[in-house]
Fold these 4 entries.
Entry 1:
Amino acid sequence: MEDKGSLSSLLRVAGLVHDLGNPPFGHFGEEAIKQFFQDYFSENKTTSLNDLEKSDFKYFDGNVQTLRILSKLYYFGDEFGYNLTFSSLASVVKYPSNSMDGNKNPSTEIAKKKFGYFVTETEIYKRISDYLKLNNKRSPIVYLMEAADDIAYSAADIEDGVKLGIVTIDEIREIFKENLDKNKDIVLKKIDDLKVEFSKDKQICQSIIIQKFRIETQRVMIQEVINTFEQNYDAVMTGNLQKELIDISDAKDIRKSYKKLQSFVFNEKFILKKEIAGWEAITGLLKIFVTASNSENFKKDGNNYQARLYNIIAAAHRKVYEVEQYHNPEYKKLQLIVDFISGMTDSYAIHLFQELKGIKL
């Protein structure tokens, strides 16, 4: 009984930290980083990086960056970053493979769908896996964290879509009607009942309807994930379950409906314009810093262009770069740049790019 309550505490930690490594502009930012390095290594035939090292950048992933942030990037006087427990660190490793063994999407083995650690964190992950006896498989916590993430964020954008006038209640109902299967009757009845209940107050009805609808659909998803967890307990605990809990639950049609709705919302022009601007900023910053890193002047001391760019990088990242032990200096420099850029906010990335290009001072 001494560990009673520990699971919920661990899940709270996992929920708080699992997206820390996401770059500016989220998944679109990830794509920008991946595309930049795919082009870069295609054109740069003289690189000293081996295939595994190149793969880390060509398949960059915010979840992988999260492990690096938690275990190393925030330097507080030792090499252990935030000094979190192995269980907490394991909770963010969704795909426990390196970047060459992983990225087998589609794959019959969930651990290899993407990847979970860079070459510089290989030893850290080995220690986590050995201590927790994971056998290079998912921690059981990951299944629960992924389900919670899907339930929370799949529904989060729906309210913004309504408030911004991108989508109406009737359009939402139609999307759900087209994509629901097992839960069609109960979900459509809920939205119809809410429309009737709040039809009198035209000013707030849309907002209240969508909030109550979101809460109800999340309630169904939570209960069905609990049921699925119980039914697949042994496979979850051994890391042998090869699907996400929500995807094999009786609420998978609700999740599918929300995904369709997300694509509807995210295709709004003003969102697309922001993402394109973000792509230009990220790839532009990468080009500036990576080009400079090819010079021997890319270091702390010096009165030249490359040294100035080096010193723009956050001091905490430069400290880790200077003390971290890894045998390939070119890989280290590229990782320093990615650490810096992927840690930016959307607005800071655009602002810094404009400053460095002389667009805005």
Entry 2:
Amino acid sequence: MREAVHQSSAWKNTLSDAWTHRGPLAWLLWPISLVFGSLAALRRGLYRAGWFKIQSVNLPVIVVGNVVVGGSGKTPVVIALVRHLQARDLRVGVISRGYGRRARDCREVRPDSAVADVGDEPALIQRATAAPVFVAVHRFEAARALLAHYPETQLIICDDGLQHLSLHRDLEICVFDERGIGNGFLLPAGPLREPWPRDMDLVLHTGPHPAFAGFTAQRTLGNYALQADGSQMTLAALAGPDCLSTKPLLALAAIARPEEFFAMLRAQGLTLARTLALPDHYDFNSFSSNEYKAFTVICTEKDAVKLWPQAPTAWAVPLILAPQSAFLNRLDTLLNALLPSEPSPTLSSPHGHSIT
């Protein structure tokens, strides 16, 4: 397992390094990026011209996504938005493709759903918010199923999907981390899925020192960790000499930037005897808890929903994202103009052709 992980990580690191600046590898791939950009522009133009069908629901739809390959903190943003809107007594539903799941159907994400069938991020969103969450390859199908089961829903948040043009959206939120737009090239010469800048309702930076305009959010770790059975322990206790376990700590992460998680743990005073960086969305099917039985395992919440079946005593630390108040105020203003006084969640274009 470790050899395959190392080879995969080495290749991803090489490409990630090339995407940070316009070096030889980026320029070598630049002609291919022109083809990619032309095809993306053609696809977007066909949607605008009506050749490809755009399907809509009679509710406000917020798409939270990014234009840069790799995780930028979208899922914590979705969780923060759902909680904010729930605090406003709004009934919010979430739809997602469910990246990496083995099932291809449309289904609801429930507390007992197999993560392999619904995806790690939708499972985490449902666990963290208790909001109705549906996954489908075509987001419109997920929205239709959500409204059929929860007709009182007032608005929908789409987790990822800025490039999923077949679903109509009322608001677009683009999330950036500390990478910004990298070298500014399109794939594969750079990290961009589409040219930037482009029109966007809201831009949110989850990393420090934004390179361009937008709102900001602060990312911190929760001050506690939890296990599969709901047991909790403060990080201070986990780091201290009175910890229930005397085993050294093994921190693992299968996220876009695992080293960031490890650094945040160390900043909380935890001494990490070992770290294990795994590919993003790693399924943990080949993970052997016996191999690491000499350690106390600590991981992210996103990893825990997949790891706990194999290692129920692993400790998961939540990642808390707090958008600045100005961002939430602006979001509320935009939503107030969209929300009807008495929402009627009926679907339009129910038989339209959806193309991704």
Entry 3:
Amino acid sequence: MIKYQFKIRTRDGLTVDNLNIQGRDQADAERKLFQMYPKSEVTECHEVIGGTSRDEGLDLGGILALISKQDKEG
């Protein structure tokens, strides 16, 4: 399952930020979103990985280097 973070405008015109919903893909997450907020409009959607948005990136090489650095120090 992948986590998606949404920003929506409800049918009443209110903005709701940081809605985190898991789904097999974005369409599945949006389906769940519209069950909770019918007739709402998605204004933003970001895929979230490990607590950070995918836009921020997740570098496996950097993580491994950090682990090996900690092993050498310890």
Entry 4:
Amino acid sequence: MDTHTKLRLGTRGSPLALAQAHETQARLASAFPELAGAVEIEIIKTTGDAVLDRPLAEIGGKGLFTKEIDEALLDGRIDLAVHSMKDVPTLIPDGTVMAALLPREDVRDAFISIKAKSLADLPPGAVVGTASLRRQAQILAKRPDLRVQSLRGNVQTRLRKIEEGVADATLLAMAGLRRLKLEHHVASAIDTADLLPAVAQGAIGIACRSDDARMRAYLAALNDGETELRVTAERAFLTVLDGSCRTPIAALAVIEKGKMRFEGLVASPDGKKILHARRDGEAKDAAVMGADAGRELLVQMGPEFKITV
């Protein structure tokens, strides 16, 4: 094999992250036969993976799942970086570009429990384990009688904790369960009208160095235009609100026949206050729609909508 064609693809080491890396690897080989067998996966340990005993909000937020991978990309240790887009901070590092978004998976959250079929079926006082303030706020808005406790770890770890009775239920992304072929653990999929997903949930992004024309050409062939527009709207909303793991924020953009329907929300962590914004327009105006919805909510937000640590 020509060593010039070897590419190093950086990823986290969780089973889900590796599944996403292998999907990227396969798509590159399918689009460019010369890359078959030439894309090497390199596992990079991130702070978010290493610190599991505290909520993300306490240790710095989302960037903890991407920082070390971005550093490896900028240092030239890897050529490509695969990220779950919902883990990517609103500002990506100078010198890098998110050059491809793969076709988006199921955006819904999954209800996981061996004791109930849905949130509505849980008895008063039941414990829902989640590290997501977005999920916590929306759960408590609907069921203030439930208790929410922090539950972290990769997908398999959280499934095991439910089986062990650490909590009565948890919520996981359908996208991740589908990619890991673990859908059989799902008690029910939660409609987005009942629980709005995280910004960019179900989307995989692939980054490279901004000045790497060769990588950008490869990734351009993998980019899914509709996913890019949807994620653009949702991340524009997040950017205006300066969203992090300290603020419960959710958003979803849907495209049908060139038209986009956008919904975003921001909530107080206890779920007692939720603000919604909706927009309908042309899909090409994705960034404008998301940002405009964010500004609408920004002027309505009070200090109760953020937690400080």
